[in-house]
From TrEMBL:
Keyword Heme part of the UniProt annotation: yes
PANTHER family listed in its UniProt record: CYTOCHROME P450 (PTHR24305), CYTOCHROME P450 12A4, MITOCHONDRIAL-RELATED (PTHR24305:SF166)
Binding positions (heme): 408
GO molecular function, one term: oxidoreductase activity, acting on paired donors, with incorporation or reduction of molecular oxygen
Protein name: Cytochrome P450
Family to which the UniProt record says this protein belongs: Belongs to the cytochrome P450 family.
Bilayer-crossing regions: none
Keyword vocabulary terms for this entry: Heme, Iron, Metal-binding, Monooxygenase, Oxidoreductase
Gene3D superfamilies: Cytochrome P450 (1.10.630.10)
Length: 486
């Protein structure tokens, strides 16, 4: 056990209200608390130096294997999220090129066009919408398109998204019960899940095989994440096996779809509840250099790099509502944390690091519970947002995408997606709160979702007035409009 902590097993207290439990236990016992949780020895860490030791400095000693509270699934297989040791290292090395800046910029096309489609259809009028549900559909479309590009036929697309939705419903059901029923156990929902997995595998292996055939011996440049992964080789000229590729593709879907939807939904909730912030963000988006906006009709990667206020809004949302509110590791050996004043952590102990608690520590964040994008502006004037998202941030207590070698490989993807989607929306739509509704509560499951998996907002078209005549650009007619938040 570690530090001082409450006596007895606290699993029921934790399950009843995980966030209040975390806040209270850290207030009472400090930055390193030894707990017994469902029979497991657990150390809850919120001390910045100890968290850094676990996630960054001694990352090899604190592995993922054996982490009691983060079970894998046959959907994501042995992909990056759960693999460990040499297998993880090789897979991460082979996957990294697919997440370099230029690669991410190429996926921005899918982000912009899916958003345009949503704005032209379900979000075209005024009304009340469940933005959590809308963003889940949007990010599923974006992630699937970024993964497979044009290699996905309409039929395969329907098969993949249908199977993924069945799997996500299955996981949501399992998470809400609080019990983990093994996937092999013959229950009706396990049966449906396995049927969906079989259909998904046949579609995904079909796409992998046909694209591998097309790329063999050709000099094509990569068009999507699948291409990037297919073309990646280690120092011996060897790529990923077919099975590893399937597992990584599904891992990216699992890890990247809902987390991004949650971030977008929370951001829109903050914008609706803080109209002055929304007005400032919309004004910034409206002032983007027009020629770049016109090229693709949606703000381009270069445009969103300039939108410092919008970036600050996203960073502040990730501070107060980190979708990954807790991350876990397992001590591979007996190890001392920090100075020798603390008792040793025994091999097999689970360590939980909580961005939720660290992001609202009053020692590091003035007025921690207040949504204040302005707190980021000086930092963003000096450094790009990505610098704040690595290495636990400037103050050492900001880690919405984790930290160290196992940090989120999709950080750049998620930030680009959030900024492109939000900038596109703020040009067209105004978010308002539903009369009488308070700011939605957070429901910590595997991720930090809005309570009841619903987030209702009122939406109205943003008043646009024409500032200049229509222009012809790249063969398509585009209107220059200016937005007005009145
Ligand atoms: C707002 C959106 C996102 C958040 C908050 C988020 C958060 C995180 C966090 C905290 C981790 C580290 C977990 C740990 O230390 O145990 C992680 C890992 C990971 N994320 Fe994300 N993520 C997001 C979006 C994405 C996207 C868009 C992708 C892919 C397209 C992605 C793919 C992954 C993968 C593969 C890992 C495992 C990396 C490894 O262990 O090598 N994530 N994510």
């Amino acid at each position: 056990m570690h530090g001082t902590g409450p006596g007895g097993d606290v699993v029921l207290e934790f399950l009843r209200s995980p966030l209040s439990f975390l806040d209270r236990i850290v207030r009472q016992h400090g930055g390193s608390v030894g707990l017994r949780l469902g029979g497991e020895h657990v150390v809850l860490l919120t001390d910045p130096a100890l968290s850094r030791q676990v996630l960054i400095d001694q990352a090899d000693t604190f592995c993922k294997e054996g982490t009691a509270f983060f079970p894998g699934s046959s959907l994501a297989g042995n992909g990056l999220l759960v693999s460990d040791g040499p297998l993880w290292r090789r897979q991460r090395q082979l996957s990294n090129p697919a997440f370099r800046r230029t690669a991410i910029e190429s996926y921005a096309q899918a982000m912009g066009s899916a958003t345009r489609q949503m704005l032209a259809t379900s979000w075209s009028g005024s009304g009340r919408r469940d933005v959590y549900s809308d963003f889940n559909a949007l990010t599923l479309q974006i992630t699937t398109e970024a993964l497979f590009g044009k290699n996905l036929s309409a039929e395969q697309g329907a098969k993949v998204t249908g199977a993924i939705q069945t799997a996500f419903e299955f996981f949501a059901g399992r998470a809400s019960t609080g019990f983990i029923i093994p996937e092999w156990f013959p229950t009706p929902d396990n049966f449906l899940y396995h049927e969906a997995m079989a259909s998904l595998d046949s579609a995904v292996y079909g796409i992998i095989d046909s694209r591998q055939g097309e790329l063999a011996g050709s000099a094509q440049s990569p068009q999507c994440l699948l291409d990037n992964l297919l073309m990646s080789e280690d120092e011996f000229g060897r790529g990923m096996s077919r099975e590893a590729l399937r597992d990584e593709l599904m891992t990216l879907l699992v890890a990247g779809q809902e987390t991004s939807a949650i971030l977008l939904a929370w951001t829109c909730a903050y914008l609706a509840h803080h109209p002055e912030v929304q007005a400032r963000a919309a004004e910034e988006v409206g002032q983007v250099q027009l020629p770049q906006v016109l090229e693709g009709a949606e703000p381009s990667p270069a445009n969103v790099q300039e939108m410092r206020y919008l970036q600050a809004v996203v960073l502040e949302t990730l501070r107060l509502r980190p979708p990954a509110y807790i991350v876990g590791r397992c001590a591979a050996i007996d190890v001392t944390l920090g100075s020798h004043q603390l008792p040793k952590v025994c091999a097999g102990t689970t360590l939980l690091v909580s961005p939720w608690v660290m992001h609202r520590d009053p020692q590091h964040w003035p007025q921690p519970e207040t949504f204040q994008p302005e707190r980021w502006l000086d930092l963003l004037a000096a450094k790009p947002a990505m610098a704040e998202l690595s290495n636990m941030g400037s103050n050492g207590v900001y880690l919405p995408f984790g930290a160290g070698p196992r940090n989120c490989i999709g950080t750049g993807f998620a930030m680009m997606e959030a900024l492109v989607v939000l900038a596109s929306m703020l040009r067209k739509v105004r978010f308002l709160t539903v009369p009488g509704e308070r700011f939605p509560a957070a429901d910590p499951r595997i991720t930090l979702r809005p309570a009841s998996c619903t987030l209702l907002l009122e939406m109205h078209p943003r008043i646009q007035y024409q500032a200049a005549p229509q222009v012809e650009l790249m063969g398509s007619r585009t209107e220059i409009t200016m937005t007005n938040d009145c």
